[in-house]
């Protein structure tokens, strides 16, 4: 499942989220994500990235050792 959301804050500011969730043949869910931005401060972009990771960790917790 892939998802992409783009927020356009003005003509020069763009914030883009990409999330990829995969399910292995054993049923393990894994995910990766990126936050890309144009025209924004690095601290803001990193805060958005951290928020996205926290949400994904809640939604798709690690399944270590589950069978």
Question: Can you give keywords for this protein?
Answer:
three-stranded antiparallel beta sheet; 3 strands; alpha+beta
Q: Could you please describe the fold and organization of this structure?
A:
The protein has 67 residues and is of the alpha+beta class. The protein has one domain (2-59). Helix content is 27%, strand content 40%. It is built from one helix and three strands. It has a three-stranded antiparallel beta sheet, covered by helices on one side. The longest helix is centred in the C-terminal third of the chain and has 18 residues, at 42-59.
Compact overview of the structure:
The protein is α+β, with helices and mostly antiparallel strands. It has one helix at 42-59, and strands spanning 2-8, 14-23, 29-38. The longest helix is centred in the last third of the chain and has 18 residues, at 42-59.
Structure summary, number of beta strands: 3
Question: Helix share of residues?
Answer: 25-40%
Order of helices and strands: EEEH
The order of strands across the largest sheet is 1-2-3
Radius of gyration: 14 Å
Strand count, sense and barrel status of the largest sheet are: 3 strands, antiparallel
What's the structural domain tally?
1
Low-confidence stretches: none
SSE arrangement:
Blueprint: E1 2-8, E2 14-23, E3 29-38, H1 42-59
Antiparallel strand pairs: 1-2, 2-3
């Amino acid at each position: 499942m892939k998802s992409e959301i783009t927020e356009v804050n003005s003509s020069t500011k763009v914030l883009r989220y990409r999330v990829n969730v995969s399910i292995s043949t054993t049923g393990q869910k894994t995910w990766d994500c990126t936050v890309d931005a144009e025209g924004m401060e690095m601290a803001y972009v990193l805060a958005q990235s951290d928020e996205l990771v926290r949400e994904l960790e809640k939604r798709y917790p690690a399944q270590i050792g589950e069978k």
